[in-house]
């Protein structure tokens, strides 16, 4: 998570977790001898704007329900608190409760006539929020079946968001998965088989934030290229696609950009 206030107009958001490890893999962690509880598997919880490929939020840590809530809270904050969003993910169970906790609104039923206790307030999901999941079944390393499920919202709402989408024609997590591949290529700590793994959680998180958010400003995405007059191709970064900047930043420029305090 960063101080930078991303524009609040992102409407199609894909969330996922990216696996890595600190010092040793989870199966090799010895509970009795390892003094650091942060050793073992660690996950980057990410949220991507599907249309611009912008990394909206990044929450590194254990794969817990608490970190899922942190991710969704940051997403809601960076989208201006809007509820007219279309969210997709895999079937990671904590996301359902996390979305309910972050987006559900309290509703007080009307009072009943006669004696008795007044009805208690209950939580209700916004009518314009849609959340759907994707479950892939693999055999011999190949996807043989894809199951798509609507968790919150209606089919009519889903079709409306898909018709308005510039990139999606069906429920998918393709763009956040593509970002996972990009990150693994940019950050050797995230490779599945590597000797460059992090030895401390602080270093892992620092590298994740650095490569993750510099991607927004310094990494031209091929599918965002535009043809100008004369058929010249203009390369664009995710930050350019959403209007945060008008040029591709260098790493030096990104590192030297002043950060306000507070």
Written description of the protein model:
There is one protein chain. The protein has one domain (about 10-220). It contains 7 helices and 10 strands. It has helices spanning about 65-80, 95-105, 155-165, 175-185, 200-220, 240, 250-255; strands spanning about 10-20, 40-50, 55-60, 85-90, 105, 120-125, 130-140, 140-150, 225, 235. The strands form 3 sheets. Strands 3-2-1-4-7-8 form a 6-stranded mixed β-sheet, with helices on both faces. The chain has a two-stranded antiparallel ribbon with strand order 5-6. The protein has a two-stranded antiparallel ribbon with strand order 9-10. The radius of gyration is 21 Å and the shape is globular. The mean pLDDT is about 85.
- Estimated structural class: alpha+beta
Quaternary arrangement of the chains shown? single chain
Instruction: Name the helix and strand elements from N-terminus to C-terminus, one letter apiece.
Output: EEEHEHEEEEHHHEEHH
Low-confidence stretches: none
Please work out how many helical segments DSSP would assign.
7
Q: What's the arrangement of strands in the largest beta sheet?
A: 3-2-1-4-7-8
For the CA atoms, what is the radius of gyration? 21 Å
Q: N-to-C terminal Cα separation, in Å?
A: 14 Å
- Count of DSSP E strands? 10
Helicity range of the residues?
25-40%
Tell me the strand percentage band.
Answer: 15-25%
Largest sheet: 6 strands, mixed
The count of domains is 1
Mean pLDDT: 87
Apparent shape:
globular
């Amino acid at each position: 998570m960063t101080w930078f206030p991303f524009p609040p107009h992102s409407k199609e958001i894909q969330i996922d977790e990216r696996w890595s490890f600190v010092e040793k893999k989870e199966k090799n962690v010895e509970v009795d001898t390892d003094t650091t509880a942060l050793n073992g598997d660690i996950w980057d919880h990410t949220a991507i704007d599907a249309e611009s490929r912008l990394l909206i939020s990044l929450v590194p840590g254990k794969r817990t329900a608490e970190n899922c809530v942190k991710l969704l809270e940051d997403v809601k904050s960076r989208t201006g608190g809007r509820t007219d969003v279309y969210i997709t993910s895999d079937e990671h169970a904590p996301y359902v409760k996390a979305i309910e906790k972050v987006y559900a609104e309290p509703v007080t039923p009307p009072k009943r006539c006669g004696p008795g206790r007044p009805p208690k307030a209950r939580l209700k999901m916004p009518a314009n929020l849609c959340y759907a999941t994707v479950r892939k079944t693999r055999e011999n390393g190949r996807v043989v079946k894809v199951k798509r499920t609507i968790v919150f919202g209606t089919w009519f709402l889903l079709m409306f968001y898909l018709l308005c989408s510039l990139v999606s024609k069906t429920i998918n997590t393709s763009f956040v998965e593509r970002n996972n591949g990009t990150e693994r290529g940019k950050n050797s700590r995230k490779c599945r088989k590597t000797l460059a793994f992090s030895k401390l959680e602080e270093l892992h998180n620092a590298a994740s934030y650095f490569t993750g958010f510099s991607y927004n400003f310094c990494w031209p995405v091929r599918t965002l290229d535009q043809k100008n007059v004369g058929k010249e191709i203009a390369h664009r970064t995710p930050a350019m696609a959403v209007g945060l900047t008008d040029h591709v930043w260098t790493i030096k420029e990104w590192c030297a950009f002043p950060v306000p305090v507070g």
